[in-house]
Amino acid sequence: MTLAGLGVWAGFFGPIQVLLAQQAEAVAPGDKEFVFGLVTGLGSAVSVVANPLFGALSDRTTSRFGRRVPWVLGGGVVGAIALLVLAVADSVPVMVLGWCLAQAALNAMYAALTATVPDLVPVRQRGVVGGWVAVSQTLGIVGGVGIATATGGLTTGYVATATAVVVLAVPYLLRSHDVPLPEALRPAWSTAAFLRGFWLSPRAYPDFAWAWLTRFLVNLGNAMGTLLLYFYLDDAVGYSDPETGVFVLTVVYAVFIVASTVVFGIWSDRLRRRKVFVIVAGIVTGAAALVLALLPTWTGALVGAAVLGVGYGVYLSVDFALCTEVLPDAESRAKDLGVINIANALPQVFAPFLGAFLIAQAGGYVTLYAVAAAVCVLGSVLVTRIRSVA
């Protein structure tokens, strides 16, 4: 599952961080920012819908290979084809088509993969497995950027990324031990009931609602702290090479995520406690944002990236385990995790606009990172409202 996750995240972030920006510049050099924003924005909109939708469909799948394997296979193959479409795209409409198809397919794959954890992993081991999920995300992002950068061209970058998506999924497809859903246990189809299933009432499922809200807030604070790093280094720190600076900070951030996430996941499992780790992680993440706010220097940025990596690494593993423990229904785990994953995707849409407003109209980078810190702490503290998990 970790290997397959590496491929998924490389498929997401190689294009987002490098290839789509280069392609926008090649296709429309006079409007590259607009084209890049259009393509990625439409792709984000697709991802918000695709993850819970394909998760719900996988919950109903009765293949003899299991509920999740067909979607990992199909999502990986279609995602690779979409990336190959992008490799030859020479117009904005083809870029939009290719990236939206890639987002839909890769989200189908990701929804099925994450559902594997509550399907097959005992509660007492979900912290450490959540840590490996976080490792796959972190290394997949770095690896995707590395593949896209090292291959030295748009076509070769997309081909290499597509290959990684497919090849890294093979061990999961062969060794997942996915459990088939007997035909007799699949609910009768009702379009109205299927659509209603995506609304999970906060009144009926308060712990699920609080888990969603806390994840949204912490991810919003983290996104505000990371998505505008280039401009922070250029404008506030005065770093001479902000592009290289962002890469260095990203590597530091990733190293500390990987160093912390599995260790604290194991610790959480042994203590059989989740909330205290989520609270501390949110406070540490908020402290990192305050470092960036109060010390706008290269040294401050390095310290902030390291602290942010530790806090967010702990959060990724333990909060994922917590979320698997508040799912309303064992029969719709992938759909419900897909709804949870919306709390990961939406902050990526809102954070750049909110951050730009705070920088331009509300006090600059000090305000930006102070607000990011407050949002992270608020999100982590609200986890105390969850009653069914220790």
From TrEMBL:
Residues annotated as domain Major facilitator superfamily (MFS) profile: 164-390
Alphabetized SUPFAM superfamilies for the sequence: MFS general substrate transporter (SSF103473)
A GO CC term assigned to this protein in UniProt: plasma membrane
Transmembrane segment boundaries: 36-57, 69-89, 95-117, 129-150, 156-174, 212-233, 245-267, 276-295, 301-327, 339-360, 366-384
Subcellular localization: Cell membrane
Top-rank taxon, per record: Bacteria
Primary localization: membrane
Keywords recorded for this protein, A-Z: Membrane, Transmembrane, Transmembrane helix
Membrane disposition: Multi-pass membrane protein
One Pfam family linked to the record: MFS_1
A Gene Ontology molecular function term of the record: transmembrane transporter activity
InterPro entries assigned to the protein according to its UniProt record, in alphabetical order: MFS, MFS_dom, MFS_trans_sf
PANTHER family per record: MAJOR FACILITATOR SUPERFAMILY (MFS) PROFILE DOMAIN-CONTAINING PROTEIN, PTHR23528
Protein name: MFS transporter
Organism in which the protein naturally occurs: Nocardioides iriomotensis
